[in-house]
Amino acid sequence: MQAINDFILAAAGQPWVLFLVLACCVIDGFFPPIPSESVVVGLAAVAATADVPNPWLLMLVAALGAFGGDNIAYLIGRKVGTRRWRWMRGPRMQTAFHWAGNELRKRPASLVLVARFVPIGRVAVNLTAGATHFAHLRFVGLTVLSAALWSSYSVSIGLFFGQWFEDNHLLGATIAIVCAILLGIIVDILISRLRGRLPEEPAEGTAAGP
Predict the structure, then answer these.
(1) What is the pTM of this model?
(2) I need a labelling partner for 26 at 20 to 30 A (CA). Which of 45, 70, 124, 204 fits?
(3) Does residue 18 contact residue 47 with C-beta atoms inside 8 Å?
(4) Phi, psi dihedral angles at 141 (to 5 degrees)
(5) Is residue 97 situated within a structural domain?
(6) Quick one: which of 158, 135, 25 has its CA closest to 74?
(7) Is residue 207 domain-resident?
(8) Domain of 68?
(9) What is the pLDDT of residues 33-77, one digit of tens each?
(10) Distances in Å between the alpha carbon of 167 and those of 10, 59, 173, 195?
(11) Which residues touch 27 (CB under 8 Å, ≥6 apart)?
(12) E strands, the chain, where?
C-alpha cells in the first residue's frame, strides 16, 4: 500500500499530469466515457495534503479543458447534427437531444450551467446547441462560466475529502471520486424528475391546451 501511495504522490508532482487533465477534460466534452471528473477530483484529493499538483493550477487547467471540450462539441453538432452516428440515434440520446432543444429555447443559461455537471447531459446540450445554431458567442460566454464553476466544484470536492487522508492518498482519492460520482447521479436524477414535470411548449400553429 505504501508503494502505491508513493507512486501516486510521485505521479501527481509530474508536469505531464496537467496535460493529462487538459486532454481528459477536452475529450469529455464530446465523449462522456472519459472520466474527467474522476481525474480532477482524485488529483485534488492528493493535492489537499501533498500540495501537488497546485490546486489553483489544476482548477485553471480543468476549466480550460472543459471550455474547449464543450465548444468542440458545439462545432461537431453544428456540422453533423444529432443523428449522424448510431450512438446518437438511440432512444436515450434522442430523448436527451429533444429535451435539450426544448430547454435551450426556454432557459438556455441555466441549462448550459447545470448540464456541465452531468456527463451525458452536457454532451447532449452541447451538440444540440450546435445543431440548432444557438448563438455561438452566447454559448461561449455560458461555457466560460460553466467550466469555471465545474472545475471549482470538482477541485473543492477533492480538497475537502482528501484532507482527511494525509497518510493514504489512494483512499482519499477513491472516497472523493465516489462522492463526486454520487453527487453527479443525484443531480442527474433531480434533472430527470424536473424534466418530467415541466410542461412541453405547444408546437407552432397549434393552440395551447387549457
Answers:
(1) 0.78
(2) 45
(3) no
(4) -60, -40
(5) yes
(6) 135
(7) no
(8) 2-197
(9) 888 888 898 888 888 888 778 999 999 999 999 999 999 999 998
(10) 14, 24, 12, 43
(11) 34, 36, 69
(12) none
Query: What's residue 37's pLDDT?
Result: 86
* CA 40 – CA 199 distance, rounded (Å): 36
Residue 183 has pLDDT above 60, yes or no: yes
Residue 206 lies in a domain: no
d(CA 21, CA 18): 5
Least Cα distance to 123 among 41, 195, 26 occurs for 26
CA torsion through residues 53, 23, 137, 110, sign = negative
Question: Taken in order 26, 21, 93, 184, is the CA torsion positive or negative?
Answer: negative
pLDDT in tens, 39-51: 898 888 888 888 7
Per residue in 95-133, pLDDT (tens digit) is 777 777 777 888 888 889 888 888 777 888 888 899 888
C-alpha cell at 116: 456541465
Read off the C-alpha cell for 125.
446540450
Classify burial at 185, counting beta carbons within 10 Å of its beta carbon; exposed 0-12, middle 13-18, buried 19 or more. exposed
Let me know if residue 65 belongs to a domain: yes
Domains contained in the chain, number: 1
Phi, psi of 106, rounded to the nearest 5 degrees: -100, -45
**Which residues in 15-24 are b (16+ Cβ under 10 Å) and which e?**
eebbeebbbb
